[in-house]
Amino acid sequence: MLMKIEIFTPNRISIIIGTFAALLLVLLEVFLAWLGLYKWSYSIVFVSASVGFIFVYIISYLLLNKLLINKIFPLYKIISEPKNEQSFKKSLNILKKANVDVANWVVQKNQEIDRLKKNEKFRREFLSNVSHELKTPLFSIQGYITTLLEGGLEDESINRKFLEKADKNINRMISIIQDLETISKIENNEIELHYENFEITSLIKEIFEMLETKAAKRGIKLFLINPSKPYFVHADRQRIADVLYNLVLNSINYGKDNGHTTIYIHDLNEKILVEVSDNGIGIEEKYLERIFERFFRIDKSRSRDSGGTGLGLSIVKHILESHQQNIYVKSTYGVGSSFSFTLNKA
Ligand SMILES: Nc1ncnc2c1ncn2[C@@H]1O[C@H](COP(=O)(O)OP(=O)(O)O)[C@@H](O)[C@H]1O
Ligand SMILES: [Mg+2]
User: Fold this and answer.
1) Are 253 and 301 in contact (CB under 8 A)?
2) Same domain, yes or no, for 334 and 269?
3) pLDDT at 132 (0 to 100)
4) Mean pLDDT in the chain?
5) Among 13, 156, 182, 205, which one has the highest count of C-beta atoms within 10 angstroms of its own C-beta?
6) Does 168 lie in the same domain as 224?
């Protein structure tokens, strides 16, 4: 919404002052005529009033313009940062322009305030998510330890099992904290990307090896299409390894038993597109745009059981964005999902 601000222009003010001056002159002449010091004549009155008007108009117009330029320019500069004072002076309609600029500035500031308010809301949500996520494992650990202290320690049937469960929850807390650290480092630009040229298919094979056992447990097969041709890319190898690890891990965690995960490499002109695709549970359309949010998980218990923190995809997105690359997701609920991202060729 554009705010309407009424402003008196130098022109308008000068007309008013000039008219006043002309009226004063006429009054003076009437007064002098009345005193008998002056011989009244319409033409002289008319000419002197006109000359008075024009003279006063020009003087006040020039003075006002100068004053306005001196007064308004600093303010105007803050808002619109014009290139130089000279070009600014050239603009005949300073106030009209200022009027529009001030209105635009108001709109811009309002948008900025809206954005800050949104960030504030996001920050509050984030804090409550973090504390909630940490509280869950912490309370479980507390429960196990209390049980152990209250006699469970001597009970051979549960003592080991409870310690193992407590250990699992501690690991969960550690992975949440590690993920949070990664995110905050990326967001604060504290992570320097170490660009290098490397071959992507060998990195994919390394990631497959790391996740082989996990996949095998669910009977999920891992495929790489077009593995014979080497593809060199220019990126931070370790960070891209994190991206691939997260995407393949998700494809296993949210895959179907005896399903498959396939990575395709597509050759685009200056880039390559890496596509991680699965025939798993899929993602409903309405969640698609939210899955990259921090802590967003569609099925919290499924994610938690598989050790997920809900931070994986947001880390993935951050890493790719800091490489100035994009990630795309396609998914059909019940059929499968595919995540693809681009990388610059070496
Ligand atoms: N390949 C996939 N298939 C189905 N759903 C997925 C897939 N990848 C991610 N998701 C959904 O997106 C959510 C967010 O993923 P992510 O950020 O990796 O968190 P996490 O795996 O820790 O839950 C997951 O909880 C899951 O619901
Ligand atoms: Mg994940």
Assistant:
1) no
2) yes
3) 87
4) 87
5) 182
6) no
201 and 339 part of one domain: yes
Distance from Cα 177 to the centre of ligand 2, integer Å? 15
Where are the extended beta strands (E) located within 66-201? 195-199
Q: Residues near 195 by Cβ (< 8 Å), separated by ≥ 6? A: 234, 235, 236
Confidence of residue 73 (pLDDT cuts 50, 70, 90): low
Give the residue, by CA position, lying nearest to ligand 1 atom 9. Answer: 250
Phi, psi of 11 (to 5 degrees): -60, -50
- CATH number for the domain including 168? 1.10.287.130
Say if residue 323 is in the same domain as residue 209: yes
Residue 3 has pLDDT above 90, yes or no: no
pTM of the model: 0.66
The binding-site residues of ligand 1, defined as CB within 6 angstroms of any ligand atom, are 246, 250-251, 253-254, 278, 280-283, 291, 296-299, 303, 308-314, 337
pLDDT band at 323 (very low <50, low <70, confident <90, very high): very high
Nearest CA to ligand 1 atom 4: 282
Q: Mutation test of ligand 1: which of 303, 309, 341 has the most ligand atoms closer than 8 Å to its C-beta? A: 303
181 and 131 co-located in one domain: yes
User: From the CA of 302, which ligand is nearest?
Assistant: 1
Query: Is 78:104 a contact under the CB 8 Å cutoff?
Result: no
- Is pLDDT at 196 greater than 90 in this prediction? yes
Are 14 and 60 a contacting pair, CB within 8 Å? yes
